[in-house]
């Protein structure tokens, strides 16, 4: 070595194992696991999800056991549609906090820094919502027939849903999916937890009451019209088609907004 000459610092070779790991995309299952943890990320979220089944069972008992006119299959499945919309409000509130709260508090930034693809981010959240949908649908499907059968027997009516359990499951799954879709659309269009919860808890029940008063008119925009149609209680194909077209268009618009929303 030449006297007075300082050797250059040793630089780690580029492309080492750590660099390769950093360049890799996070596995999709890991993104889903992260979104699942966010769903129960706070103590309040955990408490809400713990009390959600209790609230659902209470609403289900309230809307089934006092029924006195259960002479037809339509009368026996009708309360299910109200139970799904009102009894799952606590679950859907947690979903709204998951989707809208990330944009309000900018907690979406770390997720998008790890993997900047908003499509993968939305698909991961969509997978979590699908898990919630299946759990709620199956829980409702298992419990509701037991309660409505008790109510029918108490009124000396034949229990008519036992021979059409596939139909009952389909109605429960479709109704739950439509309410969950509504919550998702609201939380995407209103990226503020308080605002999204206000819209969902006020506007959606008002639409339900308006649809009961004027089904031919408000069935056109009622988000659960397709589920009522499947249950045999709808007002017609026109209302069902218009309702589906409206809410699917709102979903497409909300996803368009998501792709262009500033995460900063």
UniProtKB/TrEMBL annotation:
Residues passing through the membrane, by range: 47-65, 77-100, 121-147, 167-190, 197-214, 234-256
Domain of life the protein comes from: Bacteria
Keyword Repeat listed: no
UniProt entry keywords in alphabetical sequence: Membrane, Transmembrane, Transmembrane helix
Protein's UniProt name: ABC-2 type transport system permease protein
């Amino acid at each position: 070595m030449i006297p007075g000459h300082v050797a250059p610092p040793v630089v780690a070779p580029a492309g080492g194992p750590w660099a390769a790991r950093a360049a890799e995309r996070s596995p999709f299952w890991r993104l889903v696991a992260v979104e699942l943890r966010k769903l129960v990320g706070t103590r309040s979220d955990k408490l809400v999800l713990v009390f959600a089944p209790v609230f659902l069972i209470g609403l289900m008992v309230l809307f089934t056991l006092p029924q006195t006119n259960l002479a037809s299959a339509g009368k026996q499945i009708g309360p299910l549609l109200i139970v799904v919309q009102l009894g799952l409000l606590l679950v859907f509130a947690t979903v709204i906090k998951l989707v809208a709260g990330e944009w309000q508090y900018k907690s979406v930034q770390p997720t998008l820094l790890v993997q900047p693809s908003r499509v993968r981010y939305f698909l991961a959240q969509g997978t979590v919502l699908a898990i919630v949908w299946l759990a709620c649908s199956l829980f409702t499907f298992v419990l509701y027939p037991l309660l409505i059968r008790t109510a029918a027997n108490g009124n000396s009516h034949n229990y008519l849903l036992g021979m059409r359990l596939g139909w009952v499951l389909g109605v429960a799954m479709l109704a739950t999916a439509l309410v969950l879709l509504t919550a998702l659309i609201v939380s995407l269009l209103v990226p503020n937890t308080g605002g999204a919860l206000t819209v969902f808890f006020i506007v959606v029940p008002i639409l339900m009451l308006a649809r009961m008063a004027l089904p031919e008119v408000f069935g056109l925009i009622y988000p659960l019209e397709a589920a009522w149609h499947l249950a045999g209680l709808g007002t017609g194909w026109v209302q069902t088609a218009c309702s589906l077209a409206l809410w699917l268009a709102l979903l497409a618009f909300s996803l368009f907004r998501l792709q262009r929303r500033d995460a900063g």
